[in-house]
Amino acid sequence: MRRETPPPATEAGGNPTHAQVNTTPSSGSRWDRLRPRLSRYAWALPLIVFLLALVPRLFGLDVFLTADEDDQLRFAAGFLTAILDRDWARAVLLGYPGVPTMALGSLALALRYMWHVWGYAPLPDAGPDMATTLAHVADHPLVYLPAARTVMVIAASLAVL
After folding, report:
1. What pTM does this model have?
2. Could you report the per-residue pLDDT of 58-93, keeping only the tens digit for each?
3. How far apart (Å, rounded) are the C-alpha atoms in residues 100 and 83?
């Protein structure tokens, strides 16, 4: 015995009810044609957001010295010196909570020293090695400040993502 399915329910006027509307796009829909194109450019939005966060921060990196930036450079130099000497007890400063700032500052100081070694940007009072040069960071904070700020700007711009 064959059972007949009842005709689909319709609203007054012959329109299908909400339950009958197909919400999934068909295989030839516009969405399916756009999906490969959109996924191909999925990297563009994060890049645009990163650049919008980065570009305004890059201006004036060497213009103004705040009250504690020379201290931050000194802390970063001490941190990097302790890391290079593998003296972990000296790497922790008396309850100082800015370990990410010190680590990023240390990265900046190391990069700035490498630029000096490679001949791109000479450093005043540079010694024969990085440890000797780090002893003079506090004497010339404005020389190291743009590199330290650049690393912090890049980190802050990445944090926006």
Report:
1. 0.71
2. 988 888 778 888 888 999 999 999 999 999 888 877
3. 14
pLDDT at 52: 95
What is the DSSP secondary structure assignment for residue 113, as one 8-state letter? H
Integer-rounded Cα radius of gyration of the chain: 30
Retrieve residue 143's tokens: 């020389």
- Widest CA span in the chain: 100
Determine the 3-state secondary structure of 10 from DSSP: strand
pLDDT digits (tens, 9 = 90+) for 118-158: 999 999 988 899 999 999 998 998 899 999 999 999 999 99
Look up residue 64 and give its two tokens: 């103004």
Q: Which of 103, 102, 108, 141 is nearest to 124 (CA)?
A: 141
Q: What pLDDT was estimated at residue 9?
A: 57
Q: How far is CA 89 from CA 9, 97, 137, 154, in A?
A: 77, 15, 21, 29
Strands (E), the chain: none
- Nearest partner of 77 among 101, 52, 49, 102, judged by Cα: 102
